[in-house]
Amino acid sequence: MEPEKIDDIIDRFGGRTGSLIQVLLALQRELNWLPPSVLERVSERLKVPLARVRQVATFYKAFSLAPRGRHQVHVCLGTACHVRGAPRLVQTIHDHTGLGPGQTDPQLKFTIETVNCLGCCALGPVVEIDGRTYGHVTSEKLPELLESCGRE
Amino acid sequence: MNQFTLSIDGKEVTADEGMTVLDAARRAGVFIPTLCHHEKLEPFGACRLCLVEVEERGRTRLVVSCVYPASAGLKVTTRSGNIDRLRRTILELLLARSPHSPVLEKLVAQYGAQPGRFEKQASFCIHCGLCVRYCAEVKKAQAVGFIDRGVRKEIAFVPEIASQVCEQCKQCFELCPTSYLQAAYVLFRAQAGLGSE
Amino acid sequence: MSRLNNPQDLERLRQQLQARRMAGRTVISVCAGTGCLALGAQEVIAAFREELQKRNLTASVDHKGTGCPGFCERGPVVVIYPQKICYLQVKPADVPEIVERTLEQNQLVERLLYRLPGDGRQAPREEDIPFYAHQQRWLLGNNMLIDSKNIEDYIALGGYSALARALFEMKPEQVIEEVKKSGLRGRGGAGFPTGLKWEGSARAPADKKYVIVNADEGDPGAFMDRALLEGNPHAVLEGLIIGAYAVGACEGYVYVRQEYPLAVENIVLAIEQARSYGLLGENILGSGLCLEVFVHRGAGAFVSGESTALMTAIEGRVGEPRPKYVRSNIKGLWNRPSVLNNVETWANIPLIINRGADWFASVGTAGSKGTKIFSLVGKINNTGLVEVPMGISLRKIIYDIGGGIPGGKRFKAVQTGGPSGGCLPESLLDLPVGFDELTEAGSMMGSGGMIVMDEDTCMVDVARYFVEFLADESCGKCVPCREGLRQMAAIFSRIVNGQGREEDLQTLQNLAEVLKSASLCALGTSAANPFMSTLRYFREEYEAHIKEKRCPALVCKSLTAYWIDPARCQACMICLKKCPVGAIAGGRDTIHVIDQAKCNRCGTCLEVCPKRFGAVNKLAARDVPSAPPPEERTIDRKRKET
Predict the structure, then answer these.
(1) Can you tell me whether residue C384 is helix, strand or coil?
(2) CB < 8 Å to B150, chain C
(3) pTM listed for this prediction
(4) What pLDDT score does C266 carry?
(5) Is residue C479 within 8 angstroms of chain B, CB to CB?
(6) How far apart are the C-alpha atoms of C186 and C306, rounded to whole Å?
(7) Which of A91, A137, B36, C194 has its CA 20 to 30 A from that of C327?
(8) Is A66 in CB contact (< 8 Å) with chain B?
(9) B neighbour chains, 3+ CB pairs within 8 Å
(10) C424, C421, C419: which is closest to C398 by C-alpha?
């Protein structure tokens, strides 16, 4: 992405040092990850020490310092989903894609993440793919779901 | 300057306004163990070794003396069965990170902590934060910082800055209680292709 | 739409809106909360739009997507007003029939109605359904009447009248007195008296003060704040503005976790609309009060729901809590007085101002007033959000409202208070729900998560789950939490893998003590609660894991095995083919045998074995019989058919 576009996104939040997290969220959404050069630019433009930008970018789970896959698969591991068998879904995804939580395949197709509660507890176990929530997911249905969402 | 008295381990102590309980204790010659405390740095309150019992308005509670403000009439206890037991376990947890730190070893002997009680962890850093905070507050360089959080938290040099300022400085090295900092620095230089020191 | 410059403008608008709405129109409300949307509510809404147009009914029938009523188990939920007919699990294909039979012919579509358990009688209206009938829905009751994206729906129902009252009929100190008198305690977890918090900030001298909505809702299993913020954002906003008036704040923040995009969308929209109507911004309703509200998204950290960590996050730093020796209502955001309250706490404020503290305090127990929304989830028939008066028993919530445990299984425990709370056993089901009552029993109210567990739940696994959750979410600053949880997780890992040692329980208790007494923040001090409560009430499970290397609930994988009963196996090959790791040996005439070394205990074989055979069993690993020798594996079908 061109530097001006990065700057636009940074400036969208008024250039306040307190806007660091909101700036990084917007950049993460645009770029699907936070490249080192972008972190440096944010540090310069918001006048926040690079050490702190790095700390924030690694402290919060929403950010990724490595490129993420085109399709984000989030398995909810909240207590209600856990009690309804969510860990089994993590196993199923691994069996099907070879990927564990936090991993992306070399072709950058899928990134698998576990999340600690999407707030859809009544529908547990819940899997979110590319921002769309799927409830009552079973080990049986999951591979098909991954295939249809991953169709490109 | 406003002065007032409080009691520490039964002893009447005079303190100045704005002092913490730790400051007041030090002035009175009462020893309270610390790891993350440094006179030149803002109190951190992370190692929890300096825990003391304070009694105020009939309520007793455990507070970290490096942060807790001293106040008139406060009753402070720096050693007790409870406090000692907590300090002992904290030390045992830290020994699982750095079993041979001379700084820890002195305290280990004093509190009867048991080395090897907890499973040894891979990293040696005990997260006192002295290096990070010194570089930020005193040197104002921010060449080393914390990354990630919780059980995955570690310190890391910021290559862009560290490669330019650390060689000539290294003032944080003597602060590290475990010497993990020195090891991290050697690794950083190797990764940054800067050759040996 | 024009700006409301004074309370009379607001009243006039309200009356106009009410007149329009009362003119005999039918309204079809479809829940458009995240849960129902995931079940296809958007398509249902589109189907209604299409069908109403097709039949030329749009002049007399409105349809809208609304806030969440809480009956999530049976979504998508549709309610038709004014008859209040409630249709459940509605699909787009059902819509033409609903429009034809109910709207045009005044008849019920019976298959979409709730059936009472027992005699199966129909319960056509919301109030006939036991799930709703036993609740006290002060906060959630309006959700299905409101299009969350339209401020006028809220105004038509009386919205912002409490604000007008506070601004023009009460002084700030009087507002605080009323909140104090009501006995309202924080709904986010700690249960601190709200009025006292406001009073502290109001009295603190400062150049600037802040009011903050904590919508981080990180407790797994809790989603009531999501439903409130998505479904009725103006109720929260109105409470916030009243609070700002009471303490003297001119800037507000709504901190919403980024996992709730619809809640972010709806509160942003609500703020914009409130501003354009003159209910936010400069000179609110002509009172002189100014308040700007900003939305700040979280970035994925449970600890940032802790009030001081939330404030450091708003400041753009990592969510590391600060030692609370000077309370944040005195020195909070940017070291200024900051009133931080939970979404549900703020939503209660307009009710208290409008109906009075005495009315509010007439419900509840001595120490816990008003209602509380619980998210009833887990092994329960009627999963969803329930709003009940404080003091109601756990038994009533779980059985009368929740409909009991599915599949005929036995109740084992209910977990309240999220990772800071504890598990309560069957013997405590008659406990009245309240802040102090739950704390005394070894749990906590927390944000209101209520997770029901049955006989198939392993309590050691539950404690392990919470320890690992907190180890992942700890900020890592203080030793007791970071190192304590790290070591607790390592010990739990050994225990569930059959490597528990005699001294483990003692060590865990020692670590629990350090966590409780020496941690920097509430995440740490409450981190050992799940372990301590399960040890208190389910000690025998720990002892079985450690001493006998056995998991009584057959959950812990290393201690559990799957075994095919040679006497029942019919060699149908289904499990053999479905096994993801190829651990089953056998053939068309050879009974199937699981290779225990290859088996990953996924449970697929148990699921797929035909019910009429029922050959797959789950047992304690140490009880698995050895496999029959190869020569004894051929099926003699003639024998088995007789």
Answers:
(1) strand
(2) 471-476, 482, 485
(3) 0.93
(4) 97
(5) yes
(6) 13
(7) B36
(8) no
(9) A, C
(10) C424
The pair phi, psi for residue C608, each rounded to 5°, is -95, -15
| pLDDT band for position C343 (cuts 50, 70, 90) | very high
Cα angle vertex C273, ends C269, C279, to 5°? 130
Query: Phi and psi dihedrals of A82, rounded to 5?
Result: -60, -45
Contacts of C378 in chain A (CB under 8 A): 79-80, 83-84
Plot region of A47 (φ>0 → left; ψ -120 to 50 → alpha; else → beta): left
Closest chain B residue to A52 measured between Cα atoms?
Answer: B145
Local confidence band at A3 (pLDDT 50, 70, 90 cut-offs): confident
Residue of A nearest to C304 (CA): A60
Are B124 and B98 a contacting pair, CB within 8 Å? Answer: yes
Which contiguous run of DSSP H or E holds residue C584?
strand C584-585
Q: For C249, phi and psi rounded to 5 degrees?
A: -95, 150
Which burial class, exposed, middle or buried, applies to C482 when counting CB atoms under 10 A from its CB (0-12, 13-18, 19+)?
A: buried
Q: Is A52 on the interface with B (CB under 8 A)?
A: yes
Other C-beta atoms lying within 10 Å of the C-beta of residue C43: 15
- The conformation of residue A104, written as its DSSP 8-state character, comes to B
The answer to whether C593 faces chain B, any CB pair under 8 Å, is no
Q: What secondary structure letter does DSSP report for C521?
A: S
**Interface touch A55/B161, C-beta < 8 Å:** no
Which subunits sit against A, judged by 3+ Cβ pairs under 8 A?
B, C
Query: Tokens representing C230?
Result: 């998505």
Q: Searching chain C, which residue's CA lies closest to the CA of residue B69? A: C325
The upper half-sphere exposure of residue C42, i.e. CA atoms within 13 Å in the direction of its Cβ, equals 6
CA distance C215 to C226: 8
Structure tokens at B47: 């190692």
- Per-residue model confidence (pLDDT) at position B197: 56
Give dist(CA B181, CA C316) in Å, integer. Answer: 27
Q: Which long-range contacts (CB under 8 A, 24 or more apart) does C596-601 make?
A: C596/C561, C596/C621, C596/C624, C599/C561, C599/C562, C600/A91, C600/C557, C601/C557, C601/C560, C601/C561, C601/C562
**Of A18, A22, A120, Cβ closest to residue C35:** A120
The residue of A10, A13, A20, A21 whose CB has the most chain C CBs within 10 angstroms, and thus the best one to mutate to test that interface, is: A21
Contact C487, B93 (CB under 8 A): yes
Residues of C in contact with B45 (CB under 8 A): 323, 478, 520
d(CA C405, CA C453): 9
Structure tokens at C173: 């100190």
Start-to-end C-alpha separation, chain C: 82
- Over residues A31-56, the mean pLDDT reads 95
**Do the chains contact at A18 and C316, CB–CB below 8 Å?**
yes
Residue pairs between chains A and C whose CB atoms are closer than 8 Å: 147
Q: Do A54 and B156 touch (CB under 8 A)?
A: yes
CB atoms within 10 A of CB C262: 18
Structure-token match 């918001």, residue found = A46
- Residue pair C290/C9 in contact by the 8 Å Cβ criterion: no
Query: How large is the average pLDDT for residues C50-62?
Result: 92
Beta bridge partners of C422: C416
Query: pLDDT for C7-27, tens place per residue?
Result: 999 999 999 999 888 767 899
Q: Which amino acid is at B118?
A: F
Within 8 A of A52 by CB-CB distance, chain B residues are 142, 145
- Using a CB-CB cut-off of 8 Å, the residues of chain A touching C581 are 95
pLDDT, mean of each 10-residue run, chain B (197 residues): 92 94 95 96 95 93 95 95 96 96 93 94 94 97 95 94 95 96 94 77
Greatest Cα pair distance, chain B, in angstroms, is 61
Cβ distance of B149 and A49 shorter than 8 Å? no
Residues C530-548 have pLDDT tens digits of: 999 999 999 999 999 999 9
CB C162 within 8 A of CB C123: no
